[in-house]
Each structure stands twice: as C-alpha cells, then as structure tokens.
Automatic annotation (TrEMBL):
PROSITE patterns: CYTC. This is Cytochrome c class I. Keywords: Electron transport, Heme, Iron, Metal-binding, Signal, Transport. Residues 33-130 form the Cytochrome c domain. GO terms for molecular function: electron transfer activity; heme binding; metal ion binding. Residues 1-31 form the signal peptide. It holds the Pfam family Cytochrom_C. PANTHER family: CYTOCHROME C.
Length: 134
C-alpha cells in the first residue's frame, strides 16, 4: 500500500508547517524585543571597554537600568559623570548613547551613536541584564 504523490506532498507540507511552528515557539524570549540583536551590537560597540559582569575600562553593565549614575562601588568615575546624578533609565541610556559628551561634557567616554534603532537594541539588551527590568 503506497501513498499517492499528492498524499505524500500533503504529509510533507504538514510536517514542514509543524516544524516551523515548533521552531517559532522555541525561539529565545529575547528574539521579539531585540535583545539578541542588541547583544550582538553590544559586543561590537561596547565590549571593547565594558562587560556585563566585570569592571574594565568602563564599569560593568549588569543591573545598569535602575542604578544610580556613577553608582558602581569602587569604580573611578570622572567628575563629570559623578556630578550628573540621577538614575539610568532606558530613556536616559538612549540619551547617553546618542552623545556622551553632549550629556556629560568632560566624561571619559566618547561615543555618539546616530542611529536610534541601534541605540534601542542596545538599551533592550541592557534592560535584559538588569534586575529592575525583569
């Protein structure tokens, strides 16, 4: 008892669709909100000086959202950043990435990201590694 070509085709299509549904359901949770793309951008644009879990040239970024500006204990911040005050919010991080010297002239970080979509992705990633956002 063999299957007709049409029946085999329908079975193949059904299996392919089922596989696609399983693939989409199994995607990492960050795929929809940009955290995966944000992580990639973070690695290329930020990781030269920063790390999520360790202070390097710049301070660590774990839990940056909701943290006081210049708030990592023991990190030697510039006077410009120390006097900025406030808390890192997603909007404030976007402003920072848009032009560090415009926001805090004299700070040690020199970065200007003109693309708002790239800034949004990096901020989404930083939110994903911050307790205040989970």
């Amino acid at each position: 008892m063999g299957l007709s070509l049409a029946a085999a085709s329908r079975i193949g299509t059904a299996l392919s669709m089922g596989g696609a549904i399983l693939f989409l359901a199994a995607r990492p949770s960050g795929a929809a909100d940009g955290t995966a793309a944000g992580r990639t951008l973070y690695q290329s644009r930020c990781a030269g000086c920063h790390s999520v879990d360790a202070d390097r040239i710049g301070p660590r970024h774990r839990d940056v959202v909701g943290r006081a500006v210049a708030g990592v204990p023991g990190y030697a911040y510039s006077p410009a950043l120390k006097t900025l005050g406030g808390v890192w919010t997603p909007a404030r991080l976007d402003q920072w990435l848009a032009g560090t010297q415009k926001m805090a002239p004299g700070s040690r970080m020199y970065l200007k990201m003109d693309d708002p979509a790239e800034r949004k992705l990096i901020v989404a990633y930083l939110r994903s590694v911050s307790k205040a956002e989970k």
